[in-house]
Amino acid sequence: MHVNEELRILGFVTDFMKAFHNLHYAITTPFPFPLVQMCRTFLFVWVFTLPLCLVKNLNIHIVQVCVIMFFITYGFLGLEYVSMELDDPFGDDPNDFDDMGLALMVFEDIYLAIYTLDGVRSAKDLQELVEKH
Fold first, then answer.
1. Which residue of 20, 78, 120, 132 has the fewest CB atoms within a 10 Å radius of its CB?
2. What DSSP string describes 37-53?
């Protein structure tokens, strides 16, 4: 293997390890639960008391208040569900981040690079070593 090719592969491995450690940091950083609990409580109180203020202060028809409140509630609860999804992006839900799929693609690229540079036997040895662990 030429020195430049080896340095290029080493650079790819370094980039992959940096990305892995950044993802690990994002997963293991705790989020303060009391903050989440207080935000959800304020959201609940605000959404359910806003219709009273709209009816009393704006003097609009009750049907209009219902339509306005539907869209406001839909928007704020949608934002809450987005924040819940962003809180745990690496879970097992169908819409979660596919970190294992991306890692497998990286492994396949590494196998192809090793196959190109050192041949079939070296690529198979590496694949068996990775599958064993």
1. 132
2. HHHHHHHHHHHHHHHHH
